[in-house]
Amino acid sequence: MTSPGYLLKWTLLASLLGILTGSSCALFLWLLEHCSSLQAENSWLLWLLPIAGVLVGYVYSTFGKSTEAGNNLILNEIHEPGEGVPLRMVPLVLLSTLVTHLFGGSAGREGTAVQMGGSLAAGLSRMIPRMSTEDTKILLTAGIASGFAGVFGTPVAGMIFAMEVLTVGRLNSTSILPCMIASIAADQTCLAWGIGHTHYSIASLLPTGATSHLAPFEARLLLCTVLAGVAFGLASLMFTELSHFLSRQFKRLIPNPLLRPFVGGVLVIALFLIARTDDYLGLGVKSADEQSVTIVRAFQAGGAETWSWLWKLVFTVVTLSSGFKGGEVTPLFFIGATLGNSLSSFLGVPTDLFAALGFVAVFAAATNCPLASTVMAVELFGGEFLLYITVACLVACFISGRSSIYTAQRYCDI
């Protein structure tokens, strides 16, 4: 039975961590919104992306060599504690991600938030006398949870993600209480700072005005969900394997860490000229241009082109593999939602539902976190389509196998 002292200790520690991470996420999201708006209003900034890449490369090669592993550094520290996670990771990843978005790189935000949460957790653990190794691991896990919850506004999914992402096939529940408290604190702190999150809805198949009815079971719809899950798993597999391959090739062919993102920036500009659209630059959640392809528009019929998902995949892989900073998860949402949009036309199924299925299923497969992804779908879209969401996530994970965007993730074969 958990002692009162244990409850008091972790309530205080996790709450403080959640407040710190939530405040950092609020600042990050506020600045990111402004950087994205500046980039959209000043498209010429894209032409400076290679120079921005040199700046990012210089900063990390000079001040951040020990933090370059990003999310994988935090996962490794939880698995096998080493030299620790330096506190300077917070400003480094925050500023570098903002630079990536300001100049048009295709990246996300989850990696930044998780790294800030992990770094703050590590810094907090060093301030507490006689902090045990096990407690430090728990606090780092709570840092992951708080970063995920703060940036996406999904506290329950954040809690589960932090426990599920460490080892595939095993849910590490030893940190469940600190993760829960830190996630809720981070989410509420972010909201208290006035930072909101994008809302989505799935209206198809539900009675008019329904808010809590389960969607009716349809055998054909379930079959289409399975087929779509296969496509989502293959898209995830393509993203992760191409990311790892291209990252290795960049390092092999271009040893200079300043030159790699410069070349990556040039390639992104080349892709922009070939695609002849800026839809695949930046975050891709929403746009002032109602004709642009975005995650929000992917929930509407005709909101994406047939190959929008592939364009975003290539833009993002080139951006991140070459050394720019940011997360993979929001681009994975884009890839999944637009692929779901395209599949809905082919299969003759509701567009909003299959965009939502792709949104979470590609993420589930790329991180090997089907449970967190399913819960995230409930927090974002509601639980009316839980059956189809669960099937899509599990099928996608089965198809993608052990492929993961996190190389430090471990596997439990028992």
CATH topology of the largest domain: Clc chloride channel
Give, in order, the helices and strands: HHHHHHHEHHHHHHHHE
Report mean pLDDT, rounded to a whole number. Answer: 93
Q: How much β-strand is present in the residues?
A: under 5%
Structural class: mainly alpha
Describe the structure.
The two termini are 27 Å apart. Helix 7 (155-164) packs antiparallel against helix 14. The chain has helices at residues 4-41, 49-63, 71-79, 89-102, 110-127, 133-152, 155-164, 176-192, 219-253, 259-275, 308-321, 329-347, 351-367, 370-381, 386-400, and strands at residues 167-168, 410-411. The chain is mostly helical and 414 residues long. The protein has 15 helices and two strands. The protein has two domains: 7-192, Clc chloride channel (Orthogonal Bundle), CATH 1.10.3080.10; 219-411, Clc chloride channel, CATH 1.10.3080.10. A two-stranded parallel sheet has the order 1-2.
What are the main properties of this structure?
mainly alpha; two-stranded parallel ribbon; Clc chloride channel
